[in-house]
Amino acid sequence: MYQNSISRIARYGSLALLFVTAGCAVQKTAQNPQENSAEVEVPAEAQRQYGEALAELEMGEFTEAAAQFESFVQRYPDYAAAYINLAIIHVQQERNDQALLMLSRALEIDNTNPVALNQLGLLKRRSGDFAAAENAWRSAIAANPDYAYAWYNLGVLYDLYLQNLPAALEHYQAYQDLNDSADGDVTVARWIADLKSRIGDPPQTAQVRDF
């Protein structure tokens, strides 16, 4: 079990990068200009610029993407999703303080934005503030119970960091129920089976992935 835990944790860095650079993952993390009806209306030309910035982010061109998003928010300072994307870039560049500032700005605009709350939870977990991470993910779920990644991340928090196995099981199951793929997440399915057999015993800890 110890070797399992080490190998799972060791894969964290590469999975975190995949989360940001893979095309579909970027779309799940960030919002396009017209995805959220609560956002300000954005003209077609600005939507094009925003799309270009997302493409740069997808390719891992963080400096260029940041410049595009910063230009965007100068013209549209009340658009929360652009600040979330800037936060993601700052995290990749190991500027967590700036990332927190960007998420704070996004949440000033929309304090129920589940994407911003999810990213805030990830930052708080990395800094060791597990109570704040738990609160952020609970707030994301309260804002949007269908936001699967908050359920997943809370499951990981309870499993790997807080050793609350019943809560971990509950949240993994909720994530699995919301999973888009026909068979769900195969890895999480194994964790669920393991936890069901281990409640009350030391668990096989979860591989950490950022969503």
Q: Any overview of this molecule?
A:
This protein is an all-alpha fold and about 210 residues long. The chain has two domains: about 1-20 and about 115-210, Tetratricopeptide repeat domain (Serine Threonine Protein Phosphatase 5, Tetratricopeptide repeat, Alpha Horseshoe); about 30-110, Tetratricopeptide repeat domain (Serine Threonine Protein Phosphatase 5, Tetratricopeptide repeat, Alpha Horseshoe). Helix content is about 70%, strand content about 0%. The chain is built from twelve helices and no strands. The protein has helices spanning about 1-10, 10-20, 25-30, 45-60, 60-75, 80-90, 95-110, 115-125, 130-145, 150-160, 165-180, 185-200. Helix 4 runs antiparallel to helix 5 (about 60-75), helix 9 (about 130-145) runs antiparallel to helix 10 and helix 11 packs antiparallel against helix 12 (about 185-200). The longest helix is centred in the N-terminal third of the chain and has 15 residues, at about 45-60. The chain is elongated, with a radius of gyration of 17 Å. The two termini are about 25 Å apart. Residues about 1-40 have low confidence and may be disordered.
Q: Would you tell me the overall average pLDDT? A: 80
Low-confidence stretches: 1-38
What is the CA-CA span between the terminal residues?
25 Å
CATH third-level topology of the largest domain: Serine Threonine Protein Phosphatase 5, Tetratricopeptide repeat
What is the H level of CATH, i.e. the homologous superfamily of the largest domain?
Tetratricopeptide repeat domain
CATH class of the largest domain: Mainly Alpha
Shape: elongated
CATH architecture call of the largest domain? Alpha Horseshoe
- CA radius of gyration is 17 Å
Q: How many separate domains make up the residues?
A: 2
Approximate strand percentage: under 5%
The topology string of helices and strands comes to HHHHHHHHHHHH
Please estimate the helix content: over 70%
- Main β-sheet description: none
Classification by helices and strands: mainly alpha
Q: Strand tally, please?
A: 0
Number of helices: 12
